[in-house]
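Quick question about two entries, pasted in order.
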Amino acid sequence: MSEDILSVNLTPEEIDELRQKKYNIAEYGKQKLRGLMNKEQQIADEQLNKCLEWVAFNLQPTTQRPTKKQLEKMKTECRMIIND
């Protein structure tokens, strides 16, 4: 098993340099991941806002609750908005 291990002789400076590069790569990856997560949240927020605008626009001021058919229509429309 010890025959499979690669022996590398590095100076302390080279080891520090490799550690710093590893750290920089990890930080870069974290920043990219945060950016993607923020972008996904922005898209979800925009879709929700579009859906809420559609619902607010299509609900008539009334004291009655929407019927089951009206609620299903709203759900369908919201799904269409979200999938655009």
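Here is the second entry:
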Amino acid sequence: MAIHVIDSGKDKAKATIKIEGIVTSTDWNALREFCLDALKTKDTVVLDLEEVCQYDFSLTVFVCLLRRTVLPLGKQLTITGRREEFVCLYSRGEHCSIIEASTGCRCRNLFDRSAGA
């Protein structure tokens, strides 16, 4: 997996995090750190999944937890690329049952250090 943070130039309030390649649970901590770093200084995070060629369930859980992290901060999350694969999960936000039912994860958001696959 490769992660790139793209400086939005004119739009100082937005960070685009572009993910490429195969994403597995071993990538969890790197994804978490990139997203949390972006949220420290930006109001909007764009998660670009266009170049993700394969992923396991951990990316699904990650997207849900990222949404649960962004909402209480009053910030915005936009998913581009493979968005259609995450749209129902993304729209459920705070009330995502996928995490509890499938992984036993009880994490509220990405600030919880136990969040990880």
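Reply: The mean pLDDT is 76. Residues 98 and 104 are 9 Å apart (CA to CA). Hope that helps.
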